[in-house]
Amino acid sequence: MKRKYLALVAMLCCGTGFAAEGNRAYYQTDAQQYESVSQVSCQQCGESSYGDVSCGCEVAEPSCGFEPTCGLEPSCGFDSCDSGCIDGGHSIFDRNCECDLGDPLVLFGECGNFSMGGWASVGYHSEALAGTFNTRPDEVQLHQAWLYAEKAIDTSNGFDLGGRIDYIYGTDSQDTQSFGIDNDHWDNGWDNGPDYGNAIPQLYAEAGYGDFSIKAGHFYTIIGWEVVQATGNFFYSHAYTMYNSEPFTHTGALATYSGLEKVDFYGGYVMGWDSGFEDNGDSFLGGASLTVCDEMVLTYAVVGGVFANNQDAFEKGYMHSIVADVSLTDNLQYVFQSDLLSSEDRAGNDVRETFGINQYLIRSFNDCFAVGARFEWYQTGGTLGVPVGDNSDIYAFTLGVNYRPHANVTIRPEMRWDWDEDEMIGLKDGDSQSTFGIDSVFTF
Questions:
Q1: What does 7-40 look like in DSSP terms, one character per residue?
Q2: What is the pLDDT of residues 419-437, one digit of tens each?
Q3: Where are the beta strands (DSSP E) in 174-295?
Q4: Is residue 68 domain-resident?
Q5: Residue 231 has what DSSP assignment?
Q6: What is the pLDDT of residues 35-50, one digit of tens each?
């Protein structure tokens, strides 16, 4: 089985290298086309340079078929002034196209290191995605109405104090409440019907001095790459790995040291997973982030110990995520993530045994437009209703777009395909499903 994992990782990494080479080929081809346009001369037209009537070039055009006008560089892929660019230039698909997002509208704004703001995420998806956030299909819904207030610390002049509080209302709120202990403590009972609810997923104080800082209270995890906040993800939908094998929140204390040139260290104590200010276990949360080079950041995060210790459940074990964030070019980002979770109950019986690989490829054309792809392989035993020991392989492939018509607005349509040969997650066609989803995120 381990050989199978290694072979798949090698295959996927090789595929990524091919994608990077393909992107470089695009620039080379485009440069060659531009060179051929700029070299149109009398050797092609007859007597003098391109555009000179005496040359006999009354109908002369660049060889690619588009005339360079408006002061823009000629490009064989895009027309000039009337091709749909936000500022009247090239197409939004052209890397040379600049778009004007306008000035962002701010409801609260910033005052020194203090800031207040939020966002609203409204979305629709055609099918239910069991084991993810999006389980209410075929309805337009308010996923997140979010408010936050933060005093960021500034240790450039020595010691400083800060903190943050977040509040959320919507259909995503029940998934980020303190559900680790099912006794309605903290925000776990703040529901408004079966789908909507309220939550305070973060409430912590922070202190720092120089290169050292520590936060204490209730805060989001450092595990993984995807986050609960709609503003922190490229895609509208979420990965199975993120929802089923990673904690969302912790309560405890987490220290950060950034005194080394290329490495940041994290370490602290937390009271289990996904619980508020009530003891749900004793765990270590920590890791390190390494800037391998200007183009690559490698992050290892781990949580180990007792994840749950209450009247409903006991679970102890080990979980880690490894994330490689790579800039293949100035506007092409590749992210590789691998998660491993192994846990057992008081008697030593397996509770959850999962392994996942997520890959993301995101191409930004400009500030207004980007496209992305995500592929996930998630192997699970003992979760999503599958008995322990019965491993199941789930695959999900997502294609998405981010379009920003304004500095405060992001529209995220996507198509997603899920496969599950063991039919463990209730897909529409038994072992497969196609889902269309779209949301709009309005920040303020």
A1: HHHHHHHHHHHHHHHHHHHHHHHHHHHHHHHHT-
A2: 987 777 778 877 899 999 9
A3: 191-192, 196-209, 212-220, 249-257, 263-270, 283-293
A4: no
A5: G
A6: 333 333 333 333 333 3
Q: Are 185 and 274 in contact (CB under 8 A)?
A: no
**How many distinct helices (H) and strands (E) make up the chain?**
3, 18
Hey, how many other C-beta atoms are within 10 angstroms of the C-beta on 346? 9
Q: Which amino acid is at 154?
A: D
Checking if the pLDDT of 293 tops 70, the result is yes
Phi, psi of 186 (to 5 degrees): 50, -115
Residue 77 lies in a domain: no
Distances (CA, A) of 57 to 33, 127, 236, 407: 20, 58, 52, 45
Q: Would the pLDDT of 261 be above 80?
A: yes
Instruction: Tell me what the mean pLDDT of segment 174-195 comes to.
Output: 91
CA angle 435/440/443 to nearest 5° reads: 150
Please give the average per-residue pLDDT across 267-287, as a whole number: 96
Of 8-17, 113-122, 243-252, which range is least confident?
8-17
CATH of the domain at 179: 2.40.160.10
Integer Cα distance of 275 and 18 in angstroms: 43
What is the 8-class DSSP label of residue 181? S
pLDDT bin (cut points 50, 70, 90) of residue 314 is very high
Distance (Å, rounded) from C-alpha 166 to C-alpha 148? 4
Residue 304 structural domain: 106-443
Burial 59-87 (b: 16+ CB within 10 A, else e): ebebebebebeeebebbbebbbeebebbe
63 in a structural domain = no
Q: What are phi and psi of 134, to 5 degrees?
A: -85, 80
Record the tokens describing residue 401, joined without a space: 């777009």
Mean pLDDT, residues 384-403 taken together = 80
> Count of domains in the chain?
1
Asked, for residue 47, whether it belongs to a domain, the answer is no
Tokens 């996507």 belong to which residue? 414
